[in-house]
Design a protein that fits this description.
This protein is mostly helical. It contains 12 helices and no strands. The longest helix has 19 residues. The two termini are 24 Å apart.
C-alpha cells in the first residue's frame, strides 16, 4: 500500500531519533518536537490521535499492538509500544510485551538492553498496567526474565546464576498471539522487524 503524501511528509521530516535505546524510550523535551511527534502519531496510528490520553490505557495499546502483529505488521506494533512507553513509562506490561517480542525475534542484544532498563525501573515493585491494577509479581517476573535471557544468550555472564541453579521456564505468554509462537516464518519476520524498528529509532 502506497504511503499518502501527508504521511510521507511526516516521515521525511520527523525529528532525529535518539541514538540509544534508553533515549528512544524518553519523551522529547523540545515543544516543537513534541508537536511534530503528536502529528506523526495521529497520522500513523489513527486510533491514538490524542496520545496524551489514549496511550494511558495499557489494554488499548496492547490490544492494538496484538492486532498489528496478527495483521503481519510487527514493525508498527513495536513502534506503537515505543511511543506509548515514551508517554507512560510506568506501564510495566508494555515493557514485558517488548521483552517477549525481542525474545521471540531472537534478538539477544535488544533483549538484554530491555531487561536492564526494566530491572532499573521495576525492581522495587513499582509500575502498573494502566488500569490501576497490580502489575505481575516483580520477583517472579524478574526470575522469568533471567531465565529467558539465559535461554537466548546462554554464555552471557549476567545469566550465569540461572545456569548454576538449573532453572527452567516456560514462555510466559505475557502478550504475544499464539499464532506467532507456532509459526517459524512469522518468528523470522518478527526478528527482521525488530532489526528494522531499532534501525528506525537509533540510526537516523
Amino acid at each position: 500500500m502506497a504511503i499518502n503524501e501527508p504521511m510521507q511528509s511526516l516521515l521525511d521530516h520527523a525529528p532525529p531519533a535518539p541514538r540509544s535505546l534508553r533515549a528512544s524510550l524518553q519523551m522529547p523535551i523540545d515543544s516543537n518536537a513534541v508537536r511534530l511527534r503528536d502529528r506523526y502519531i495521529a497520522t500513523r496510528f489513527v486510533r491514538f490521535a490524542e496520545p496524551g490520553a489514549s496511550f494511558s490505557s495499557t489494554e488499548d495499546v496492547m490490544g492494538w499492538a496484538r492486532q498489528l502483529l496478527d495483521d503481519e505488521q510487527p514493525r508498527l506494533a513495536i513502534e506503537l509500544l515505543h511511543l506509548a512507553l515514551q508517554e507512560y513509562p510506568e506501564q510495566s506490561r508494555l515493557w514485558l510485551f517488548l521483552l517477549e517480542l525481542a525474545f521471540l525475534g531472537e534478538d539477544a542484544v535488544l533483549f538484554a538492553e530491555l531487561a536492564g532498563l526494566y530491572k532499573e525501573r521495576f525492581s522495587n515493585g513499582s509500575g502498573h498496567d494502566g488500569a490501576g491494577e497490580a502489575s505481575p509479581s516483580t520477583l517472579t517476573t524478574l526470575s522469568i526474565i533471567d531465565a529467558m535471557g539465559h535461554d537466548i544468550a546462554p554464555q552471557d555472564p549476567r545469566y550465569a546464576h540461572v545456569r548454576q541453579k538449573g532453572e527452567k521456564f516456560m514462555l510466559p505468554n505475557w502478550s504475544i498471539p499464539d499464532s506467532i509462537e507456532r509459526d517459524e516464518p512469522r518468528q523470522k519476520k518478527l526478528h527482521r522487524a525488530l532489526v528494522e524498528a531499532m534501525m528506525f529509532h537509533l540510526s537516523r
